[in-house]
Design brief:
heterodimer, A: mainly alpha, two-stranded antiparallel sheet, 12 helices, 2 strands, about 80% helix, globular, B: mainly alpha, 13 helices
Chain lengths: ~270, ~260
């Protein structure tokens, strides 16, 4: 009964999110093409690197691994991306956050379900084409089908966890706007740091061992590196289990953190306008 | 022209006041940009720790090309950043009327209104990389290199600006075109690396269709090797002039077609 009510409360937000992304689908595709272009640049760079190198592998990665890494990292980054920071910061800046607080629904759940609507559309349009493309490439290069259903399913689980971590992290970060008022700079800083620490720009395997180990324990590797490595089949069974447990731990941590910051920040809320 | 320069100074001063309101914000933005570039260069470093050269260019030469690509990008960012807002929201919100009712050229007004100091990060890193790689490579600088460098940078900047003018002018018909600008603008990343790494199709696109290759690789390769000045520098000037003329044409056509979306 409670669950039913829960669904009934938040379904409209999901619907709104879906409609929103469908309405701006031309923008969405232009944006996507622009972003995917950087994957192709890196593809050509790696091709040239492997041409210039005498060895078949680059620090343990073959060309084929590198391509899978590039595109699956892009896909993971795209699907786990959460707009929470920006949305919350905007609402705090223009004061409309006050309106959210008087509504009979939970603050973070509204955002979550709205974004989920958006994600459903994204999954429909880019998830399947990218995965199929990557698998077709692997098949063409190695001559046999490399797709493994168990890795794929574990990847999906890890991806969902990664998205939720990303969401709660961004919510916590967005609440900083209560203290900073304007988050433009801090938002860019966050992107750069996360892209680096999560292994999205440079695979953690290319970093010095100590640094890679430390980064493996931080929450950021849970955002991108863990799901991608699972997809690529780089982890053994036990490793997968410990990695997913680590993701669950960081998810709980982020949820609690966001609640603490929220409770603290609400007390000093000072609406700037409206 | 004099009046325009004076107006430009006033606009810049106005914008700086705006920016100083959020000082911390600006600083963190600048720091994160520097960090982002550092990561990119670290990445190149990791690649070159495993291979001696990339399609015939060594680490320092790649740094030179990379650094060169940041200079026109930074200059365009510094002076012409407001064009982004035209496509993203100025036209859609109906705010473009303001630019048409003032007694100055609308394109100039849009451009002069904003002066984007974040671009100093790009310019600084570009200059540092160029200086560092020139010293490492022990390049001999002949006197004519300097005017050629300035010419190629100026025209390369105009390539960026022209692409932004043309794509943001689309919003005069469609109300919003920020994402089209974004799509075209992102192609500039191709220019950071030698065009020889790409396949024929990509190479032709970035040379003849969206000529970003002329904003970095072609002119930079001339300064590195001294070969092909006619194509490398002449091509930059030619591509940029044509593109800029076309973009101004599109802008003026767009202004005629513009209908306010305002309330």
């Amino acid at each position: 009964m409670k669950f039913k009510k829960f669904i009934r409360t938040y379904k409209p937000f999901t619907r709104a999110g879906m409609l929103e992304s469908v309405q701006y689908r031309a923008n969405f595709f232009c944006f996507l093409i622009g972003e995917i272009m950087s994957c192709f640049i890196m593809f050509f760079v790696w091709k040239a690197v492997f041409l210039s190198s005498d060895s078949e592998t680059f620090m343990g990665f073959t060309m084929e691994d590198m391509v899978v890494y590039l595109f699956i990292t892009f896909l993971t980054g795209y699907l786990t991306y959460s707009d929470g920071t920006y949305a919350i910061a905007m609402e705090i800046r223009d004061g409309s956050i006050a309106m959210r607080m008087i509504k009979p629904c939970s603050f973070d759940m509204c955002f979550l379900f709205q974004e989920l609507g958006n994600k459903i559309i994204n999954v429909l349009f880019i998830f399947a084409p990218l995965v199929l493309g990557v698998e077709a490439y692997r098949w063409a290069i190695t001559g046999e089908c490399q797709f493994q259903i168990q890795h794929f399913l574990l990847y999906v689980i890890s991806l969902v966890l990664a998205y939720l971590i990303s969401f709660y992290f961004n919510v916590s970060y967005g609440f900083m706007a209560f203290y900073l008022k304007n988050l433009w700079g801090a938002d860019i800083l966050k992107e750069v740091i996360i892209n680096f620490l999560s292994g999205a720009t440079i695979p953690l395997a290319f970093m010095p061992e100590i640094l890679a180990d430390v980064l493996g324990f931080l929450p950021f590797s849970s955002l991108s590196y863990t799901p991608v490595m699972i997809y690529m089949g780089m982890y053994s069974g036990m490793e997968i289990l410990s990695r997913i447990l680590m993701q669950i731990f960081w998810l709980c941590f982020m949820v609690v953190l966001s609640k603490i910051i929220w409770n603290h920040a609400v007390k000093r809320l000072c609406s700037q306008e409206g | 022209m004099r009046r325009m320069l004076r107006l430009h100074r006033i606009f810049v001063a106005q914008y700086m006041k705006n920016l100083m309101e959020y000082k911390v914000d600006f600083l963190t933005g600048a720091i994160s940009f520097l960090l982002g570039q550092a990561v990119q260069i670290l990445f190149l470093g990791i690649i070159f720790s495993q291979i001696p050269d990339l399609v015939g260019w060594d680490f320092n030469e790649i740094l030179f090309i990379y650094g060169f690509s940041l200079i026109p990008k930074g200059l365009d960012h510094l002076f012409f950043d407001n064009l982004w807002s035209v496509g993203y929201f100025i036209v859609r919100k109906g705010d473009f009327d303001k630019y048409l009712t003032r007694p100055i050229n609308s394109l100039f007004y849009v451009i002069a209104e904003k002066f984007c100091v974040d671009a100093f990060g790009e310019l600084a890193i570009g200059l540092i990389l160029i200086t560092y790689s020139v010293i490492q490579l022990k390049l001999t600088i002949t006197w004519y290199m300097i005017p050629l460098f300035i010419i190629s940078v100026v025209f390369a900047t105009l390539i960026y600006t022209a692409i932004k003018i043309a794509t943001s002018a689309i919003s005069f018909w469609t109300k919003a075109s920020g994402h089209i600008t974004h799509m075209f603008y992102m192609t500039n990343d191709f220019s950071k690396y030698p065009t020889t790494i790409y396949n024929k199709f990509v190479k032709n696109i970035i040379t003849y269709v969206i000529p970003f290759a002329f904003t970095a690789y072609y002119p930079a390769s001339f300064f590195l090797t001294g070969e092909n000045p006619l194509f490398c520098i002449g091509g930059t000037v030619l591509a940029s002039t044509i593109l800029f003329a076309v973009s101004v044409l599109i802008w003026n056509r767009g202004i005629k077609a513009y209908e306010s979306a305002g309330s």
